[in-house]
Amino acid sequence: MPTxxxxxxxxxxxxxxxMWPEIKRRIGTYMTERMGIPPEEAARLREHYLVxxxxxxxxxxRHHHIDTDDFLAYVHDLPLERYLTPDPxxxxxxxxxxxxxxxxxxxxxxxxxxxxRFLRLEDCFEGIIDVRSLGWLAKPxxxxxxxxxxxxxxxxxxxCVLVDDSPRNTAGARRQGWYTVLIGPRPDPEAADEHAFxxxxxxxxxxxxxxxxxxLTIxxxxLTTDG
Length: 227
Description:
Blueprint: E1 3-6, H1 19-34, H2 39-53, H3 56-64, H4 68-75, H5 88-96, E2 101-104, H6 109-119, E3 127-129, H7 142-151, E4 160-164, H8 167-175, E5 179-183, E6 194-196, H9 199-209
Parallel strand pairs: 1-2, 1-4, 2-3, 4-5, 5-6
Helix pairs in contact: 1-2, 2-3, 5-9
């Protein structure tokens, strides 16, 4: 039986809804207003740390010794109703999947719980594997995937599925032997085994493909839902 790990931001909800750009803006504002870093340097460091460590937070922890709780509370202080809309069909499709389902996010559990509650998906997952429980490791670091497996009960890598909107994260999971699904507007065959434009599209299609299998199995033939 596969174990399915779902990313949070940009995967459970449409990535183009504007929430991630607002989080990035608040990260920049925190760096300039709370830390006193000039705006151009803050923008450069934000992207440099993101690419280098998987999250800007990790770079700020290593090089600036920030107050992590204060940072996370500030950047995630968002009016979710402005960006998110519950999707009852997604909820039903997730609950029909006869496989363990985990949230696996580079964010923190407090933010994840807020998002899940607003989307009415809080009972669709076994639990939340967040950046704290990973010891501040983050996708696409190899250790993040290894730690996530351990927290989910140590399923073999070949039975793990990552569903994520980041090609860097799906590519990292692939290197660990996971099966990968990229959610978003553009397929990337080098980074993921499958592609779908939306999470609901993939979950519904995967459920149909496995309708006669209990428990679910991973079909290693690529599935493209591009029409």
